[in-house]
Specification:
heterodimer; A: Helix Hairpins; 3 helices; elongated; B: 493 residues; mainly alpha; globular
């Protein structure tokens, strides 16, 4: 299972970095989101213990096996909310800048250079 | 008493929420902003006074005991940074009230400004590393929107740039947090510090140290992560750029100090060596960049890049005296830089096109003699002329360097520091002394300058009475020298 997680996280990081370095800002924004998804997967993989049973149930009908780690799930939820918010903002900015500067090419968006 | 820690974080957040509801009434919004920032400042000063009695305040959110729950911790280091942050944020709100920009009339401006302040205080007070990430993101997202709505139409471009860059910082931070959690199964910084001090030091934890360092260096815009900073800071609305360039870059410095004194104490010598190197790079590139730039606000942003280099060198030398000097430097630089950016913005607000380009500022200051005096005082303070506060921090740093016998670095840093004097006097002459070329069209009224005047006053006071701040920094360093004090205060026992 760990190998699978490692492979998936690695592939997603690679895809995200490749996509982030594209000139097209919209493709770069996709890379941004893929990278955050990779991080979320990483968090899922680093749960302090590999659990198979639900974490919070009545002690009387607690299923057998190690309870899963609820903290990483809480962390991932927080990270998803934040990354989704930033992604929405980023796309909004790109839309606004495509109207203001008439381009979504990051090479042409260099008015601040000097 | 411990509940005081909630003030600087949650009062601005609450008032931000209320001021969203009052979007139609701008003066009421601004009143709420002033109330929120002043209450936050009072609370942070209260925490500082409690610290001076020898207490370390710990507030357990929801009553959960650490290391399971999230704790807000107010020790001397956090208080020093937080009082600085709330002071500058309050000054920023005061400037906003008298600001003529179109951006400050948007209903979203004041809530976002308060969110930025709350995020800053939260990131400084939190004792939990994941909560640190949340508060840093709150600051980043609020500031990005504030820059995107800037009067400068290039603010949007700067916002896109910074959102991408800060996402990289966030990725580093999150990967570091994940590595720490995988190693120790805890997110509480005191707990992590205790486990690391206990001797368990797997490779993954060291990788986490590298990740956290990258994240903090990126937040502080240190070489080689600096390239976005002048763009982002110069394009921001004036009150926002004053906060960004003075306080927000210090959050990364705070993280570095916390990391090397609480968690990764064994790796600290290696990290320190690296910080000295990066600091010297910053001092040089920042000062030279400031010398050849074309825009007054951009010049000050480059200068931040240089001044952060001085602070890093102070931390990197690693003796108690230089670390204390770096802390004094942190406070003094924030006050000076916020004041100077506000003054530059106030000058720019008088020009017809609202630009801070040096080519259009020649002679603009002729009609603003008071601003000229303030700008000169600020520039001299930045360059480290006595009796202003910049002198106190530079002198403390140099004396510390002499004690540490780091002659080569000391010579390099002092040499580069002289460039500061060069570019500050040059722009002052250009703006206030030069005869205007041709007819200069000026607006009758610009931004009000109460906030920068107060900050420059603070510069003079901190320069003439530098003793208390130096003593306080020395006490802070003494407390940092024994991480067990922090760990025991948070975890109990």
């Amino acid at each position: 299972m760990n190998v699978l997680f490692a492979l998936a996280t690695g592939v997603m990081f690679g895809m995200g970095v490749f996509q982030l370095l594209r000139r097209d800002l919209i493709k770069a924004a996709m890379g941004f989101y893929i990278l955050f998804a990779a991080i979320n997967l990483l968090f899922l993989a680093v749960g302090a213990y590999d659990g198979t049973a639900p974490a919070y149930v009545d002690a009387s009908n607690q299923p057998d096996g190690q309870p899963s780690d609820p903290l990483v799930q809480a962390l991932i939820l927080t990270a998803i909310v934040i990354s989704f918010g930033s992604y929405a903002l980023l796309l909004g900015f790109i839309a606004a800048s495509s109207r203001r500067f008439k381009t979504v090419d990051s090479n042409e968006l260099d008015h601040l250079k000097g | 008493m411990n509940a005081l820690l909630l003030g600087p974080v949650f009062v601005p957040l609450l008032l931000a929420a209320i001021s969203v509801v009052l979007a139609r009434n701008r003066s009421l919004q601004q009143l709420l902003g002033l109330v929120g920032s002043v209450v936050a400042w009072l609370c942070s000063v209260g925490v500082l006074l409690a610290n001076l009695q020898g207490e370390t305040l710990v507030y357990r959110l929801g009553g959960w005991p650490p290391p399971f729950g999230i704790a807000l911790v107010g020790d001397l280091l956090a208080s020093l940074f937080a009082v600085m942050a709330t002071t500058i944020v309050a000054a920023g709100v005061l400037y906003t009230v008298g600001c003529k920009d179109v951006a400050v009339t948007y209903p979203a401006f004041m809530p976002l400004f308060l969110c930025m302040g709350a995020g800053l205080s939260g990131a400084l007070y939190t004792g939990d590393i994941f909560t640190l990430f949340v508060f840093i993101e709150l600051t980043v997202l609020a500031s990005v929107v504030l820059v995107a709505i800037s009067d400068n139409r290039l603010g949007l471009e700067a916002a896109i740039k910074y959102l991408f860059i800060s996402a990289m910082g966030t990725l580093f931070l999150l990967t570091g947090i994940a590595a720490l959690y995988a190693t120790f199964g805890t997110l509480n910084m005191a707990d992590i510090g205790q486990l690391l001090a206990g001797g368990s030091r797997p490779l993954l934890a060291q990788a986490a140290a590298v990740m956290l360092m990258c994240a903090f260096l990126l937040k502080s815009a240190v070489f080689p992560f600096h390239f976005w900073q002048p763009d982002f800071h110069a394009a921001a609305p004036t009150p926002v750029s004053a906060i960004l360039s003075s306080v927000v870059v210090k959050v990364g410095i705070y993280g570095l100090i916390r990391m090397t004194t609480l968690m990764f104490t064994a790796e600290a010598p290696l990290i320190h060596d690296l910080l000295v190197l990066l600091g010297v790079f910053g001092v040089f590139f920042g000062s030279l960049g400031a010398l050849r730039t074309y825009d007054a606000k951009r010049l000050l942003a480059y200068s931040t890049f240089g001044q952060v280099g001085f602070i890093l060198v102070g931390i990197g030398w690693g003796t108690a005296a230089t670390l204390a000097a770096a802390l004094v430097y942190v406070v003094n630089h924030s006050v000076i830089k916020a004041a100077l950016l506000m003054l530059a913005g106030a000058i720019a607000s008088r020009t017809a096109t609202k630009t801070a380009r040096l080519s259009e500022l020649g002679g603009v200051g002729k009609v603003m003699p008071m601003t000229g005096v303030l700008y000169l005082l600020g520039g001299l303070a930045l360059a480290g002329a006595p009796p202003l506060n910049g002198f106190v921090s530079k002198a403390a740093l140099v004396l510390g360097g002499i004690d540490a016998q780091e002659w080569l670095i000391l010579a390099l840093v002092v040499g580069a520091g002289l460039i500061t004097l060069l570019y500050m006097t040059r722009t002052w002459q250009l703006i206030f002394q030069q005869a205007p070329s041709g007819e200069v069209q000026l607006k009758p009224a610009g931004d009000r300058q109460i906030a920068p005047a107060l900050l420059i006053g603070l510069c003079i006071v901190l320069g003439l009475y530098g003793g208390p701040l130096l003593d306080f920094a020395a006490r802070t360093v003494a407390q940092l020298g024994d991480p067990q004090l922090y760990i025991r205060a948070v975890l109990g026992g």
